[in-house]
Amino acid sequence: MSTDSVNPNAKAVPFKLVLLGESSVGKSSLVLRFVRGQFFEYQESTIGAAFLTQTVPLGDTIVKFEIWDTAGQERYKSLAPMYYRGAAAAIVVYDITSADSFQRAKNWVKELQRQGTTNIVIALAGNKVDLEDKRQVETAEAKSYAEDNGLLFMETSAKAATNVNELFVAIARKLPSKDSESTPPSDVTPHIIPKPGTDTPPTNTGRRGTCCN
């Protein structure tokens, strides 16, 4: 992960970050790649939301991302505002092999712009670039849309670890560095994903299998 040299006295500042997008675009895979450096070819679909944390050191500040990975299924869309409320940043994910997922990503962007936190940092991530031969969404089209809407933009692959860390670092650099400007803790009860090797089951059980790059 490319970050600034860290001040030994740097203080961790928490920022709430939410991932939004349709089911099977790879939101959970991106988070697991960033937080744990892991990728699973068979990734279960999120039920409700999952909660993880990871830090990004930036000089005098350590950005502590409090990450909410939301479910993409239609029946959970009404819950989304509960998770993006108070978020300092959001990653809207689409699948480059699915034009429909890109169009739906635009709807998420509009919703965040209307109802999200003031000055929320929004990043658009075109995932699964390892499937270039199946591409339906051109890079230039997505980049132009992102520029027109003031979004960060990267194409990623959770499977190949392409631009995953870079995406989160770019977001961290856009966030305010002062404690007073960080977002308050969420009032949503975390659905914790246990670390590998533990026996504690995740609270967001009942996932359905899907393949996410």
TrEMBL record:
Signal peptide from the UniProt entry: none
Entry keywords, A to Z: Nucleotide-binding
Superkingdom of the source species: Eukaryota
Residue ranges, annotated region (Disordered): 176-213
Cited Pfam families: Ras
GO molecular function annotation: GTP binding; GTPase activity
Name this protein carries in UniProt: Uncharacterized protein
Organism (species): Naegleria fowleri (Brain eating amoeba)
